[in-house]
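ok, trying the design again with the full structure, not the truncated one.
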């Protein structure tokens, strides 16, 4: 992978990570705060409150909370892409190969969010962030297919450490968001 392609991968991953973190933040906002937040409500068809906040906390794929899982995948990719800038050429190619492969499960989860809106919830609205995450993930998949994969994973210990760090990140993100909603619910009950 050339330096230019690496820069494009890094930019796409950071953009997707920012969107996924926004989605997690919004999903775990208390109801009153989410209802007042107008920056992601563009029309009746593109309304994050009606689509993401209404069902986002309970949205799971195979028992895994979707929004923290998306943030975890993008965080893992971001770690690999960031640390690849200073890695040896062999390790760099391997780490970027793994980062490229992560686009596919991320795209699957992003598409799952859009399909859940339309098919399960029968909702006429979706969120701009869901469309952007899906488009970014599909763009990453397309670039991966066009560029191909070139590199064997070297430094497996570092990749495993990044994976563990990403899983912990997602676990604590989910725990903090759930605790925030639980505290808001308890305050509302009082």
């Amino acid at each position: 992978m050339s330096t230019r392609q690496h820069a494009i991968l890094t930019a796409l991953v950071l953009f997707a990570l920012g969107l996924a973190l926004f989605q997690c933040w919004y999903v775990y906002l208390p109801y009153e705060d989410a209802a007042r937040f107008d920056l992601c409500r563009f029309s009746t068809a593109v309304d994050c409150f009606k689509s993401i906040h209404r069902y986002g906390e309970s949205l799971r794929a195979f028992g895994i909370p979707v929004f923290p899982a998306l943030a975890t995948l993008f965080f893992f990719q971001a770690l690999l892409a960031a640390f690849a800038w200073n890695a040896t050429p062999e390790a760099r190619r391997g780490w970027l190969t793994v980062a490229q492969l992560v686009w596919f499960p991320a795209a699957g989860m992003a598409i799952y969010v859009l399909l859940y809106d339309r098919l399960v919830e029968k909702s006429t609205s979706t969120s701009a962030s869901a469309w952007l995450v899906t488009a970014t993930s599909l763009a990453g998949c397309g670039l991966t297919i066009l560029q191909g994969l070139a590199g064997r994973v070297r430094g497996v210990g570092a990749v495993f450490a990044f994976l563990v760090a990403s899983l912990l990140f997602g676990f604590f993100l989910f725990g903090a968001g759930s605790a925030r909603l639980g505290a808001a619910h308890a305050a509302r009950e009082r």
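Keeping the full-length input from now on. The helical segments are 3-27, 31-36, 48-55, 66-84, 89-101, 103-120, 128-147, 156-189.
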